[in-house]
C-alpha cells in the first residue's frame, strides 16, 4: 500500500499533572457504530480500546500505516474554542464494497450505498482519562450547513438546511465536522470513520459480543430475529442488531439506544477478555479494525499509545451514553422531509457539559416509566382482538389500553386465528404515526401495515402479552433525560 504522507505534529490535549497515588489514567473508548449505524461507532471504539495496552511502539507504528488518512480540518476557520479533554467524531458510513454476495444476502445488505453517514457520535475522553462520554447525534437531525464546496461538483454553496447525515454526501468529512461543530459548539479534535466490513471483522476477531434483550426484537428489513434472553452475536448478527430501526416503535431513536448498548458490551468484551494484554490477539483485532478505518492525520502512533496506556484500567462503568435531547419529532422541512429538531435548551446544557469536561449524569437516573410518542393516545381508536385461546385476554388488553388513554371500542372480539404467539398492531399505512404510538404502549409488539384498514387500529393480543406501558407525547422543550452508564447497559 502507498506510504503514508508525513503528518503534522500530533495535537494533544494537555494532561494534568499526576496526582499522588493516582491510578493509571483510563480513557474511554473510541468506537463507532452509522448510523444508521452505531456499528461503526462500535468499531472505531475498538480502534481506541484496542489501540494498544503498551505492547510496543514498533507494533503500533506498523498498525498506524494501515490507517487511510483524510483531512477533515483543512482550511477550517472560526472554530469553537478548545475545551478540556478530547473529542472524537465517530462516523459510520454505509460502505459495503468489500461485503461478499453471500453476506449481502444473509444479512440483508443489498442495494446501493447512499454515501452518507449511518451513525454519528461524539466520543468525549476526559482530560484525566478516567471517563468516556458518548453522545449519539440522530442521522435525521435537522441541520444547517455553513458555506462550503460540494464534494462531488466542486461548486461553492451557501449554508442551507438538510438532514445531518446528508452533510457527508455533499461535503465529505470536512463538511460533516464543520456542521457538527456549528450545531454543538464543541471543538472536534479527531475524526474516525468506519464501514460495515471493519465492524463485522472486529466483532468476529473478538469472538463475539454478548447482548441481552427483555423483549423479542424482529426486523424484516435487516433480518434481525431475537427472542428474549442473552445472545452472543458474531459480526453479521451484530451488524443486523445495530442497523435495525424497525424492531420496535421507536424507530431511529430505539436503534441508537441499541447501538449504545452494543458499544457498552463491546467495551466490556475487549477490556475483560485479556485482549488488551495479549500482543498477538491485539494485533489481529487492530488489523481487522484499521483495515477499513479512515482518520485525520493527527490521530497516529503517539495518540494510540497514549490512549492504550490509559485503557488498561478502563471498564464499562467508566463510560456513559446518551442521545442528544429531541425537542420535536417529525419536523417537516420543504424538499427535505421529516426531521428531528433538537431541544435547544437541553442540548445546550449537554454540550456545555462536554466542553467543561463534566460527567453527563452526576448520579444514575431512574429509567423512564413512560415511552415517548408523537400522537397522544386519546386520538387513537383501537379494536382489540384475542388472538389466543386464553379466556378473558381480550378484555384485559382492552381495559389496560383504555386505562393508558387509548380510545378502545370496549368490545374486544375473538380473532379468526387463535394461535398468535406475538402481539400485533395492524394499521393502515396512512396512520403509521398512530400505529407507532400504540406499539410503544405494547412492549415487543409487531407492526403490520394493511392498506385500506382505515383510522381504527387493530391489536391482536398474542401469548406474549404481559402489560401495557404508559406513553407520553414528546413536545418541544421536552427531552428524554436518560444517561446510561456502560455497566447499566450491559447484560448484568
UniProtKB/TrEMBL annotation:
Residues 15-27 have a biased composition (Pro residues). Residues 117-270 form the Cell envelope-related transcriptional attenuator domain. Signal peptide: none annotated. Residues 1-33 are annotated as: Disordered. Gene3D superfamilies: 3.30.70.2390, LCP protein (3.40.630.190). It holds the Pfam family LytR_cpsA_psr. InterPro entries: LytR/CpsA/Psr_C, LytR/CpsA/Psr_CW_biosynth, LytR_CpsA_psr. Residues 379-465 form the LytR/CpsA/Psr regulator C-terminal domain. Belongs to the LytR/CpsA/Psr (LCP) family. This is LytR family transcriptional regulator. The lineage of its organism: Bacteria, Bacillati, Actinomycetota, Actinomycetes, Kitasatosporales.
